[in-house]
Amino acid sequence: MVPAPVIQIADLSFRWPGQLQACLEFNTFEIRQGERIFLHGPSGSGKSTLLGLLGGVLMPERGVLNVLGADFARMPASLRDRFRADHIGFLFQMFNLVPYLSVIDNVLLPCRFSQRRLDRTTAGGRSLRDEAVRLLTQLDIGPLLLERPVTKLSVGQQQRVAAARALLGKPELIIADEPTSALDAERQSAFLDLLLHECDDASSTLLFVSHDRRLAPHFTREIALAELNLAQVAGEAA
Amino acid sequence: MKYLIQLAILSAWNRRITLGLTLVAIALSVALLLGVERVRHDAREGFSQSVSSTDLVVGARTSSVQLMLYAVFRIGEATNNMRWESFQMLVAQPLVAWAVPLSLGDSHRGFSVVGTTPEYFDRFRYGQAQPLAFRAGRRFEQIFDVVIGATVAERLRYELGSSIVLNHGSGDVGLAEHSDKPFKVVGILEPTGTPVDRSVHVGLAAIEAIHLDWQGGAPIPGMSIPPEFVSKFDLKPKTITAALVGLKNRAAVFRVQRSINEYSGEPLTAVLPGVALDQLWQVVGVAERALLAVSTMVVAVGLAGLVAVILAGLNERRRELAILRSVGARPGTVFTLLSIEGLAVTVLGAILGVVLLAAMTALLGPLASARFGLAVEMRMIDPQELKLLGAVVGVGMLACLIPGYRAYKLSLADGLTPRI
Predict the structure, then answer these.
(1) How far apart are the first and last CA of chain B?
(2) CB-based contact (8 Å) between B9 and chain A?
(3) Which pTM does this prediction carry?
(4) Which of A180, A197, B36, B402 is the most buried (most CB within 10 A)?
């Protein structure tokens, strides 16, 4: 049986307001459940725009954009916001955490905005906090750090806390935007292993965006954004 | 929503130094605004209560404002006096219950001298019809007895038995002295917060006595009548400056006023103190309104500072807002988050301002009362002040929609990846 599609894009075009040229133009692009996708592209190839589209904060000009069966191209913004909170975990490159919240509060953040994430987190019979602590422990963040302000953590620790936040409540799709670029090579690899392992645990699909092609072997499929994007993008910031 | 408020508080705490300073600025400006409003209110109150229970003030023909100025506030001088016969005519009126004469024009070291009758201490009322009370001593009985107001006693350090010399005319320097006829302090009044505190009261006869050997505002050369002999002269006054009149029936006040104004013996003016005080306040009120305008602007500056601080902090928070969006916050949520912060600081500032004002009145109230005769009391906020406070919070709320709106636009434009 072929796994269900998680992301379906067809004949998609996006243009920033006030610009003449389209920034993204896709023919077709599909990610299926359980895949570990490595998406790479240099700065300016439209990565941020694609993430904005997949996250539901940007609207395509035309085309099909389905995420987990939801038709983003036709959904009102508030529903897309809700959908994102319910089904997608995000992981960014640096400054990934809300600086004035403690470690545990940062991890619990998605459950404050999404009832579904909250329900899924506590579905196993554990309390919300226990589940967060379990996830953090798996990611090598010990109980001593829980109430610590996140600004007191090392970059590597911060990224693992951010990963725990993205994974809490087992969202179907994890989108990671260069989460390892601030880590040295050794830690990069360790972090990736942890992330992939947790994705397996949560049976989440992973879309990993990076410009560093050395990481590609960890994934099941590698896609070059430049080949995918038909628009001739120049001067657009990453 | 509850979590949003918690988030706003935590975020604000994270920037507590800048926000704290802004909070202090707003609290100070609110305290200033309320303080000015309160002083204004109390000054007006004190002003309108400087004479009470008097139905008419009567003097020679002049404007009502001017009559009030010299008869009640001892400011300026009467251009004309009224004849003693006219005063007796007043007393004889069937509707008049009492009349107290006032003879002004002399001074003592800057404080005005009021020649009057002992009845003055019964009839004169201030505030809510409060009578004059003696802190020490008694009324004047002998010709050269004097009763002084609280401020006079305090400023000049006079006690019972102090000997004082009156000046001819009013002012501070270069005045001729009635040095041949010294007076003795026999009574000191309690403070009233009215011009009475700054007055020196003597009998009408005393005013006549010190001017016996004077003519045209100067001593008659070669003529000097020693104090022992003054009682041998006729000390019945020929003129007085003004009179305070009480009626048997207040409803008749306009009738009596008209009959005095139309008196055929000499041109007289009778004014209703309440009406004249209101007119007078219109004049004084300009300064008071300017003061209120200035403090309103100070509040506006404080609120503008708040908006500026929140706006300035916004750029550093774009990443944070993007994170919140990634976990499901809507642009509207971001707008609310920012607006809550501004509103909270405004409300806290207003509350702190009220507390500050209370503390200042408690600390500085006695000083203001002693130094400037301003009776500023410690009290709860009245509805008028509450309205003012509400206006501040309302304007603050509106102002804080600006950073909220800006954050909303930013988070729409930034999406999940702010371009910083």
Answers:
(1) 29
(2) no
(3) 0.73
(4) A180
* CA B331 to centroid of chain Cα atoms: 52
Among A51, A82, A96, the residue with its CB nearest the CB of B323 is A96
Rounded Cα gap, residues B81 and B33, in angstroms: 44
- Beta-carbon contacts of B301 under 8 Å, excluding residues fewer than 6 positions away, are B29
Residues 6+ apart with CB under 8 A from B175: B107, B167, B168, B169
Going from N- to C-terminal start, the domains of chain A cover 34-57+84-228
Among residues B280, B299, B332, which one ends one of the domains? B280
Name the CATH topology of A34-57+84-228: Rossmann fold (3.40.50)
Q: Are residues B15 and B91 in the same domain?
A: no
Q: What is the pLDDT of residues B361-392, one digit of tens each?
A: 888 777 766 666 555 666 777 888 889 899 99
Residues B146 and B211 in one domain: yes
Based on the domain organization, do B302 and B406 belong to the same domain? Answer: yes
Does the beta carbon of B326 lie under 8 angstroms from any beta carbon of chain A? yes
Residues B202 and B316 in one domain: no
Euclidean distance between the first and final Cα of chain A, in Å? 37
B417 contact residues in A (CB cutoff 8 A): 48, 51-52, 92, 177
The range of the structural domain enclosing residue B315 comes to: 2-47+285-414
- The C-alpha of A83 sits at a distance from chain B's nearest C-alpha, in angstroms, of 8
- Whether B22 and B58 map to the same domain: the answer is no
Q: Which residue among B14, B329, B331 sits closest to A113, beta carbon to beta carbon?
A: B329
- With CA atoms as reference, report the closest residue to B180 among B145, B212, B148, B225: B225
Same domain, B76 and B220: yes
At B196, list the tokens: 């009475």
Per-residue model confidence (pLDDT) at position B167: 83
Long-range CB contacts (within 8 A, 24+) of B369-377: B369/B191, B369/B193, B370/B154, B373/B46, B373/B151, B373/B193, B373/B197, B374/B39, B374/B42, B374/B43, B374/B46, B374/B193, B375/B42, B375/B46, B375/B193, B376/B38, B376/B39, B376/B42, B377/B42
At position B182, the amino acid (one-letter code) is P
pLDDT (tens digit per residue) in A123-176? 888 899 999 999 899 888 888 888 888 888 988 889 889 999 999 988 999 999
A48 contacts B14? CB cut-off 8 A: no
Contact between B328 and A51 using a beta-carbon 8 Å cutoff: no
For A40, A126, B181, the CA distances from A200, given in Å and listed in that order, are 22, 20, 112
Does residue B420 belong to any structural domain of this protein?
Answer: no
Q: How confident is the model at residue B355 (pLDDT cuts 50, 70, 90)?
A: very high
Secondary structure element (H or E) that encloses residue B348, with its range: helix B331-372
> By the CB < 8 Å criterion, does A48 face chain B?
yes
* Type of residue numbered A197: H
**Mean pLDDT for chain B?**
86
